Amino acid sequence: MIGKIERVNLRDIWKNEAYDFTNWLAENLDVLAETLGISLSLIETEKAVGTFNVDILAEDSDGNLVVIENQLEKTDHDHLGKLITYATNIDAKKAIWITSEPRNAHITAISWLNESTPIDFYLLKLEAVKIGNSEPAPLFYIIVGPSEESKDIGSKKIELSKRHIKRLDFWQKLLERSKKKTDLFSRISPSKDNWISTGVGLSGLRLQYLINYDWGSVELYIDGGKGSEEINKKYFDYLFSKKDMIEKVLEDKLEWERMDENRASRIRKKFEKWGLKDEEHWEELQDQMIDFMIRFRKIIKKYVPELKKVRNKNIEE
Fold first, then answer.
1. Which tens digits make up the pLDDT trace of 40-62?
2. pTM for the predicted model, two decimal places
3. Residue range 217-225: average pLDDT?
4. Crossing angle (nearest 10°) for helices 153-179 and 282-316
5. GO molecular function, one example (predicted)?
């Protein structure tokens, strides 16, 4: 059965902008970062700038400061003034204004700021959608971006929306099929992201499904967050020492990606025959991914007790 996409009132999800939405966004900056095509890391919420407070202060991959101003209503001059004040007073390189309803006058103002200042200004519209009884998912649309992006902003906004909705549909169907075979992802909701994940019984290890335009994958993603580089690699190295046994049990070859240049590591099985674009083959792809996930989880769970010993030894050292 195909679910119907419904839009959800933002205030039904986040009743209080300052406490509910700002805190949610601070914990989920990757959702915003994907829309913008940049990396964002949280520094602080409610950062004091004179007598005002920045909703969210973050930094990009180059260490440049980014200010984020939230407004779950029509844009107004007050919030525009705050955005400019924050950005200029702390020497931010990017300024992001999130709203539920951008006024034409403020769209024009942000476009002018991009043309007239060295700061990259973004004006984003926020909506929320759900399919059936799924949890609501946020959708960010770039209304105005830095001047070099303005030419393709319309097509980018439409394409992002279509891709996000298509992912929601893919995950909704995969999870429905998964529930018929296993309870592994039974508590996971569909997402507009290209991945969904669940725990495996040890912090820092996540079993993930991924879907891209022309392929899908099942993976163990190893990342305990900030400061976890050493233990991430130790987990990976231990599992890699069992590579032959794991692949023998699975009767399949895996991609072992230590990723020394990154904090995280992954062990992955790709399914490259079909992807998000091949809607007529979704069921076949989903069944392949689900069946492999069931077997993959079983073998990974077997090694969790030993991985806990690796963790404990690392703590002692």
1. 999 999 888 777 889 999 999 88
2. 0.55
3. 96
4. 90
5. nucleic acid binding
Secondary structure in 3-state letters for 248-284: HHHCCCCEEECCCCCCCEEEEEEECCCCCCCHHHHHH
Distance CA 230, CA 224 (A): 10
Task: Read off the amino acid at residue 45.
Answer: T
Q: What's the token pair of residue 196? A: 């969904």
How far apart, in whole angstroms, are the C-alpha atoms of residue 254 and residue 243? 9
Tens-digit pLDDT profile for residues 250-309: 999 999 999 999 999 999 999 999 999 999 999 999 999 999 999 999 999 999 999 999
pLDDT score for 107:
95
Using the structure block, give the residue that is written with the tokens 């980014």. 66
> Percentage of the chain surpassing pLDDT 70?
94
Q: At a CB cut-off of 8 Å and minimum separation 6, what does 234 contact? A: 310, 314
Q: Are 44 and 121 in the same domain?
A: yes
Domain match, 14 and 153 both = yes
How far apart CA 119 and CA 112 sit, in angstroms, is 11
Q: Report how far residue 189's alpha carbon sits from residue 264's, in angstroms, rounded to the nearest whole number.
A: 24
- What tokens appear for 256 in the block? 């072992």
For the chain, the straight-line distance linking the first and the last C-alpha, in angstroms and rounded, comes to 54
For residue 112, what are the domain limits?
5-162
Residues ≥6 apart with Cβ < 8 Å to 250: 269, 292, 295, 296, 299
User: What is 96-160 written as a DSSP string?
Assistant: EEEEEE--HHHHHHHHHHHHHSSSEEEEEEEEEEEETTSPPEEEEEEEE--GGGGGGHHHHHHHH
CATH code, 117: 3.40.1350.10
Q: What is the mean pLDDT of the chain?
A: 90
What is the token pair recorded at 171?
């995950």
